[in-house]
Design a protein that fits this description.
The chain has 71 residues and is α+β, with helices and mostly antiparallel strands. It has one domain: Glutaredoxin (3-Layer(aba) Sandwich). Helix content is 34%, strand content 18%. The chain has three helices and four strands; from the N terminus they run E-H-H-E-E-E-H. The chain has a four-stranded mixed sheet, with helices on one face. 30% of the residues are buried.
Length: 71
């Protein structure tokens, strides 16, 4: 699944879900940041992962994504 520039996507694959991907998505939504559910990104070693402006964010956190959005 392609994430458009400016969009945020959070991997909901099995490993990322186990390592907090779904919780990360819920946290972002609670903060008013909409994000797209992504299928497995094959970056399981770095779970949870997200994409911001099409660039992978490894070991993603809500704070890390917020910092990436400010760049």
């Amino acid at each position: 699944m392609h994430v458009e520039a400016g969009a945020i996507g959070v991997c909901h694959g099995p490993r990322c879900s186990d390592y907090g991907g779904r919780t990360l998505a819920e946290t972002l939504e609670a903060r008013g940041v909409s994000c797209e559910q992504l299928a497995c990104q094959s970056l399981c070693t770095y779970a949870p992962t997200a994409r911001v402006d099409g660039v992978a964010v490894l070991h993603a956190t809500a704070e890390g994504i917020a910092l990436r959005l400010q760049e």
